[in-house]
């Protein structure tokens, strides 16, 4: 049985997770751990004591966020119109990824397994697959457009954010996803 953390140790853990979310969000998952410790106001040894590996810290910082994202994504399955559900999911995903570099890298990179991350990432992927299948079944999405295409399209759209309004680029993308009349 694991003993509960002392109050100060728990506070340090929470400070480290909050600092990791900020720093990873700003600089990506390769951000210096020293900067995370400094921003949390703790020594680097405290960071390593709480999170022995970078992936342990990434999992603590993003695991809950991935679960929340998957829950939000499931709302797209309840949309009356499958196209509207798909569009809402894509827009929410782009909104998230344009402001959080760490989340973008987490979603688009092949990362080593970390406690809790694989299951959360798989859940997100399953929800996206269901939303795509629903749109395909309704005939409102090109039949040749799949999950890999969606991941690439979202990454390309959100990477364009520094170049201008990502929503404008997304509009072009969405127009191209509708089935073409033959």
TrEMBL record:
The keyword Metal-binding does not apply. InterPro entries: Homeodomain-like_sf, HTH-type_TetR-like_transc_reg, HTH_TetR, Tet_transcr_reg_TetR-rel_C_sf, TetR_SbtR-like_C. Keywords: DNA-binding, Transcription, Transcription regulation. The keyword Lyase does not apply. Residues 10-69 form the HTH tetR-type domain. It comes from the Bacteria. Pfam families: TetR_C_43, TetR_N. Residues 32-51 bind DNA. PANTHER family: HTH-TYPE TRANSCRIPTIONAL REGULATOR BETI, HTH-TYPE TRANSCRIPTIONAL REGULATOR RUTR. This is TetR/AcrR family transcriptional regulator. It comes from Amycolatopsis thermalba. The lineage of its organism: Bacteria, Bacillati, Actinomycetota, Actinomycetes, Pseudonocardiales.
